[in-house]
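Appendix C: a fully annotated inverse folding record. The material below is reproduced so that readers can follow the format used throughout the book. The structure is listed first as tokens, followed by the designed sequence.
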């Protein structure tokens, strides 16, 4: 059973998510302990393919307080671990118009390894966001009326 650490809720609000990949992340020093404690923030984080490698930018991991004074920088770029074949596939899809790599969640798998789930996303327009809000409010009202009828 995987333990969920953090999810990027803004990604689902701002992007149409299509394909998802699970990948490892290269962490240094006490960053793993900090992730296990839940000190992860997705604000404005994104992934990019450069020189045949996938890097994750702006994923904020707070320094672990009980660690040494030689902590790593909190917002440094981190390497994501994927097979070359997967990276080539991602690169071809990202080169399509309007597709970006967005981190969705950070979790610890059954073996105790920190994993990041990234997804291909296409940015939503303002009217798409409005439609989603309308659908949500209609669903809430429907659930509310069904709950009242059951009483």
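Designed amino acids, in order:
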């Amino acid at each position: 059973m995987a333990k969920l650490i953090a999810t990027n809720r803004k990604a689902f609000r701002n992007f149409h998510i299509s394909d998802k990949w699970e990948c490892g992340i290269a962490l240094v020093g006490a960053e793993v302990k900090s992730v296990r404690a839940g000190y992860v923030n997705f604000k404005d984080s994104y992934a990019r393919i450069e020189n045949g490698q996938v890097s994750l930018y702006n994923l904020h991991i707070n320094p672990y307080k009980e660690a040494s004074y030689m902590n790593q920088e909190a917002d440094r770029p981190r390497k994501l671990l994927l097979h070359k074949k997967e990276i080539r596939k991602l690169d071809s899809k990202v080169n399509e118009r309007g597709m970006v790599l967005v981190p969705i969640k950070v979790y610890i798998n059954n073996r105790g390894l920190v994993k990041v789930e990234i997804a291909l996303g296409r940015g939503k327009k303002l009217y798409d966001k409005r439609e989603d809000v309308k659908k949500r409010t209609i669903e809430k009202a429907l659930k509310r009326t069904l709950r009242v009828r059951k009483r």
